Amino acid sequence: MLALLDEEASAPTSVQSAERAGVSVRLVFHHFHHVDGLLVRAATVQAERHRGILFVIPAHGPPLLRIRALCRQRRLYYEQMTPVYRVAHARASAADGLRELLDDDRSVLRMQLATTLAPEIEAGGDEAEQLLDLLEQVTGWESWWSLRNTRRHTAPSAERAMVIAVRRLID
Q1: pLDDT(28) > 90
Q2: pLDDT for residue 96
Q3: pLDDT tens digits for 124-157?
Q4: To 10 degrees, what angle do helices 63-91 and 155-170 make?
Q5: Nearest Cα residue to 77 out of 141, 135, 133
Q6: Domain coordinates of the chain in residue numbers?
Q7: What tens digit of pLDDT does each residue of 51-76 get?
Q8: Three-state helix/strand/coil letters over the chain
Q9: Of 16 and 153, which is predicted with more confidence?
Q10: CA distances (Å), 37 to each of 10, 13, 21, in order?
Q11: Nearest one of 92, 87, 94 to 6, comparing CA atoms
Q12: Which residue of 4, 54, 74, 101 lies most exposed, with the fewest beta carbons within 10 A?
């Protein structure tokens, strides 16, 4: 399934996954019950493989350095997760487990953001929660995907755009 997703298959099937793995379709259904179960497992494996990219950045030091480190981590993570995210976002409402996986990833990313930029967010006073919401939006995968896919930015260019957006929000 991961190989099919990496090849940008928009809706990989159980048959394609079984053929790629060299097993019977029946075996796929035995272990995963349906293609969405296989997709959930593939997405979980991919997230586990790459979560190490996301580590806590201490909330001290120059804000620009922390912002750049945060955006670099997200670039590396999103570039690895995009094949899975692309399909997971499209099927999240139909597949049990995908919405939970996406929500879990979003929570991890939000916590990292809140920790890394804590002084700047707290300086927002009564608007701190809204500021965190906006920062989450501009550093989220959906924004990344839009920059990469719709606006045709390269990964370094999309990262620079993300840095600019975060800087503007906290200045």
Answers
A1: no
A2: 67
A3: 999 999 999 999 999 999 999 999 999 999 999 9
A4: 120
A5: 141
A6: 2-170
A7: 899 988 999 999 999 999 999 999 99
A8: CHHHHHCCCCCCCHHHHHHHHCCCHHHHHHHHCCHHHHHHHHHHHHHHHHHHHCCCCCCCCCHHHHHHHHHHHHHHHHHHHHHHHHHHHHHCCCCCCHHHHHHHHHHHHHHHHHHHCHHHHHCCHHHHHHHHHHHHHHCCHHHHHHHHHHCCCCHHHHHHHHHHHHHHHHC
A9: 153
A10: 16, 11, 16
A11: 87
A12: 54
C-alpha closest to that of 89 among 24, 39, 160, 163? 39
* Rounded-to-integer distance, Cα 89 and Cα 102, Å: 8
Class of CATH domain 2-170: mainly alpha
Q: What sign results for the dihedral spanned by CA atoms 153, 159, 160, 162? A: positive
The greatest distance separating any two alpha carbons of the chain, rounded to the nearest whole angstrom, comes to 58
- Is residue 37 over pLDDT 90? no
**Separation CA 88–CA 82 (nearest Å):** 9
Torsion sign over Cα 135, 141, 147, 148 = positive
Task: Note the pTM of the prediction, 2 decimals.
Answer: 0.86
- pLDDT score for 56: 87
